[in-house]
Design brief:
The chain is elongated. It contains six helices and no strands. It is mainly alpha-helical. It starts with 14 loop residues before the first helix and ends with a helix. It has a single domain (44-186), classed as Four Helix Bundle (Hemerythrin (Met), subunit A) (Up-down Bundle). It is 80% helix and 0% strand. One of its GO terms (cellular component) is plasma membrane. InterPro entries: Cyt_c/ubiquinol_Oxase_su3, Cyt_c_oxidase-like_su3, Cyt_c_oxidase_su3-like_sf, Cyt_c_oxidase_su3_a-hlx. It is a multi-pass membrane protein. It holds the Pfam family COX3.
Length: 187
């Protein structure tokens, strides 16, 4: 007998999106490498810079992004069950928590600038503002994707591949933040 194995498992999203995500992660890996080298070359400066960071705000932003990712997962689970109105509610919750990340980051940037720190202060703050700023742009793109997910869940035909791909992008943003949080606030 010839048994044909069927496997319904697949990589979520579109393959082109994965090329973009892997490329983006490669660029951030370079950023993390630059940070690590500079931290090794200037340990005192980086320790002094870390001492100026608001660990509470960094932790709030970490929790906010993890919560948003949970909402994205719950939304996709509902969408896969064709419960699009429930999925939409989870995507709205993810969007609100994503916006909270931006608000918290604004207050953190404001705090640093009012204390006299900016990208020209020293290498620590230059890298801090550049890397977290680029990450913030990714959060904004992720929020646009979440808004598109909300709109699409209101239609009669929903493209699950789009929801999966946008979710994967959001999770990438989350993972990148966790690494930034570790490098900037803890290590």
């Amino acid at each position: 007998m010839n048994y044909q194995k069927t496997n319904s498992r697949k990589i979520p999203g579109e393959s082109e999106l994965w090329i973009f995500i892997l490329g983006d992660m490669f660029v951030f890996a370079l950023f993390f490498g630059v940070w690590s080298v500079q931290h090794t070359l200037q340990p005192t400066l980086f320790q002094l810079g870390k001492a100026q960071m608001n660990l509470g705000l960094g932790l709030i932003n970490t929790i906010v992004l993890l919560t948003a990712s949970l909402f994205v997962v719950l939304g996709l689970q509902r969408a896969r069950k064709s419960q699009f109105l429930h999925a939409r509610k989870f995507y709205i919750a993810a969007t609100i928590t994503g916006l909270l990340f931006i608000v918290t980051k604004f207050f953190e940037y404001r705090e640093k600038i009012l204390a006299g720190y900016n990208p020209l202060s020293n290498d620590f703050f230059m890298y801090y503002f550049i890397f977290t700023g680029i990450h913030l742009i990714h959060v904004v793109v992720g929020l646009i994707a979440l808004l598109m997910m909300i709109v699409r869940c209101g239609r009669s035909q929903v493209d699950i591949h789009f929801l999966e791909g946008a979710g994967v992008f959001w999770h990438m943003v989350d993972v990148l933040w966790i690494i930034l949080f570790l490098l900037i606030y803890l290590i």
